Amino acid sequence: MAGIEHRQVDGDEAGMRLDRWFKVHYPGLGFGPLQKLLRSGQIRVDGARAKSDTRVQPGQTIRVPPLGVDAKETKSGPIGGRDLRHSPDGELLSRMVLHEDAKVIVLNKPAGLAVQGGSGVSRHIDKMLEAWTNQKGEKPRLVHRLDRDTSGVLVIARTRGAAQQLTAAFRERDTRKIYWSLVKGVPRKREDRVSTWLVKEQTPDGDRMRIAKHGDEGADHAISYYRIIEQAGQNLAWLEMEPYTGRTHQLRVHAAHIGHPIIGDPKYFEADINWTFPGGIQNRLHLHARFIDIPHPNGGRLKITAPLPPHMVQSWNLLGLDENAAGEDE
Q1: Does the pTM of the predicted model rise above 0.85?
Q2: Which of 295, 312, 194 is closest to 247 using CA atoms?
Q3: Is 147 one of the annotated active-site residues of the chain?
Q4: Which CATH architecture does the domain made up of 177-326 adopt?
Q5: How many Cα neighbours within 13 Å face the side chain of 267?
Q6: Is 310 helix (H, G, I), strand (E, B) or coil?
Q7: Residue 274: per-residue pLDDT
């Protein structure tokens, strides 16, 4: 770089630390030289001296002195400068896409694919998203989770700013999430509210939730709603389930708690000796994040529906259940 530059902070960089901002835009600039420039006042934000931990805001101007390193090049091409052609992870993710714009990606996550890493997990969505890192070095960010064996709607933020807004929407419960499940037996009430306290336990097979009492150490309140859409005799019921809170395994534990565990649940389904798994139905978790309604970072609301995964399509066909019987999801 030949001379002094003045660069404006982008809208998606709100709240970013100044040292991080330099790492994104000038990845070749080392920590030591950056500190020296800051101490000598050669780097300024809106004309004022700044420190490494100064938080920049959109529209501010950063004075960039000659650094001796090049700025990161901006790629051309699709949104985010991504190139999926030679990336197996990128190609797999692209097949999952239900919605995509400059701020948000919505995926239809397959059952069996983990969202994040953990014990014994070699491939997961969070790692795969590195294939979609944009020209600023930003990897798309997770803003909520789905259990590994649960399929369906997964919302991803493309940018830092979008992640902050979407995370806040989930935290403040300004979202609506609808799940479809197939459960053992038929609940006595056609629709109901389930309210319990849940506590997490460590087991050899990983984390497991159990019903707890109010006041138990580590216990969190969990509220879910359900309604029966259709039933197959007295053996199985198709439920629409809506979590009001977002606890680990919440819908799975609540289904088991009311005596109607979700078919194929490896943690919470304990079939009695007289119960036979229906012929032709796969012994896999029948829980699918069907629909989400969430505020879009640019305004308005995003409403997305995810098609059922193959093993649930097979079960619906075998049982003669009509996907359209649920009516509109919104």
Answers
A1: no
A2: 194
A3: yes
A4: 2-Layer Sandwich (3.30)
A5: 24
A6: helix
A7: 65
Q: Is 93 helix (H, G, I), strand (E, B) or coil?
A: helix
Mean pLDDT in each 10-residue stretch from start to end of the chain (330 residues)?
76 80 84 90 90 86 85 48 59 88 92 85 88 83 94 94 93 93 95 94 83 90 96 92 93 96 90 72 95 93 94 94 72
Evaluate whether 96 touches 46 at the Cβ level (below 8 Å). no
Decide whether 5-64 matches 177-326 in CATH topology: no
Domain boundary assignment for the chain: 5-64, 79-172, 177-326
Superfamily per CATH, domain 79-172 = Pseudouridine synthase (3.30.2350.10)
Amino acid making up residue 150: T
Q: Where are the alpha helices (DSSP H) in the chain?
A: 18-25, 31-39, 88-96, 125-128, 160-171, 250-257, 310-319
Give the per-residue pLDDT at 271. 66
**What per-residue confidence (pLDDT) applies to 75?**
43
Q: Please give the DSSP secondary-structure letter assigned to residue 317.
A: H
265: left (phi over 0), alpha (psi -120 to 50) or beta: beta
Fold of the CATH domain 5-64 = 3.10.290
Annotated catalytic residue within 147, 207, 293, 322: 147
Place of tokens 């490896």: 266
The sign of the CA dihedral 60, 105, 114, 329 is positive
Is 54:18 a contact under the CB 8 Å cutoff? yes
Give the DSSP per-residue string, 284-295: S--EEEEEEEEE
**Is 271:304 a contact under the CB 8 Å cutoff?**
no
Torsion, Cα 254 256 260 264, to 10 degrees, reads: 110
Of 134, 143, 126, 205, residue with least CA distance to 177: 143
